Amino acid sequence: MSANSFGDLFRVTTWGESHGPAIGCVVDGVPPLIPISEPDIQFSLDQRRPGQNRFTTQRREPDSVKILSGVFDGVTTGTPIGLMIENVDQRSRDYGEIMDRFRPGHADYTYWKKYGIRDYRGGGRSSARETAMRVAAGAIARKVLGDRISIRGALVQMGPHVIDRARWDWAEVSNNPFWCPDPVVAAQWEGFLGEIRKSGSSTGAVIEIVISGVPAGWGAPVYGKLDADIAGAMMSINAVKGVEIGAGFAAAALSGEDNADEMRMGNDGDVRFLSNSAGGILGGISSGQDIVVRFAVKPTSSILTPRKTVTVDGAETEISTKGRHDPCVGIRAVPVGEAMMACVLADHMLRHRAQCG
């Protein structure tokens, strides 16, 4: 299977399946002498880890990471960093009843049509289990970027329920199980998602990632656009069906005057912008403003409600997906989105350094 690597200079290759013995990744291109340890990576993994509350899948994976290579005496060596996480809570029997039936909304059918084989145990390579290694790689990317760059994510919409941006408080994100910056809406989501979970259904979500501290100049104006790489990274996350940057789709309803980010000179002698419709990226190159990205996550496809489907032999039937699934997969997509953003930025930082010094 091809296309298991991401990035140019900061390059991540993941391996493993949802119900295999382990998953892992190789992170190449990391500069030498950067302090890194397993606890540094584990901190990020614990934010994504399943089974932490009743609103996520109850699969109990400790996600304990092991560094296999590329680190010596607590610092990177400049060689490929190998990481591994053992799978310890597989329950492949949960999928025995659907081994010959395609789950609507899942990658089962397209995976089978492409490769002629299907790992029915949780989706195999197409499972969101793979994103644990993206989070691990993202922890390394943050170390490459350094402390001056801040990457923060929040859930801004669950199903039809949207936050009130007037109540946005980053401190609230860690005070609820939804990464929600609005404490009032977070309390409402608890009842909403509780009913969704009890009914065996699911709901979608929108995640917003805000990045501060990226200097002007990262990216390229044609095929190496920073926003294009960000969009590709977000779309590569399981269940993501849409990405927007800055004003995004709302820009289509704006006038040229409203959309223009006017400029003035700041007291520091640098340009300052009076608005940020562009989301921190102009012509594929960072402007120095906050980079603002949102992505939409569809409802989890594994639901208890019977749905029409077909078998691998072409027989029409119905399917009800049992097992342990997220009623809103968007919740655990927040740290994944942050990690992918870190990987994109680390790659562009190294590319900018290589060309411009």
Which descriptors apply to this entry?
single chain; 357 residues; alpha+beta; 5-stranded antiparallel beta sheet; 7 helices; globular
Q: Can you walk through the features of this model?
A:
The chain has helices spanning 38-48, 108-115, 131-145, 183-199, 226-235, 256-259, 330-356, and strands at residues 5-6, 11-16, 22-28, 65-69, 71-72, 75-76, 81-86, 150-158, 161-162, 205-212, 240-245, 263-265, 271-273, 281-282, 285-286, 291-297, 307-310, 316-319. The chain contains 7 helices and 18 strands. The model has no long low-confidence stretch (mean pLDDT 92). The longest helix is centred in the last third of the chain and has 27 residues, at 330-356. It is globular, with a radius of gyration of 21 Å. A hairpin with a 4-residue loop joins strand 1 and strand 2. The strands form 6 sheets. A 5-stranded antiparallel beta sheet has the order 1-2-3-7-4, covered by helices on one side. Helix 1 (38-48) packs across helix 3, helix 1 (38-48) packs across helix 7 and helix 3 packs across helix 7. The protein is 26% helix and 22% strand. The chain is of the alpha+beta class and 357 residues long.
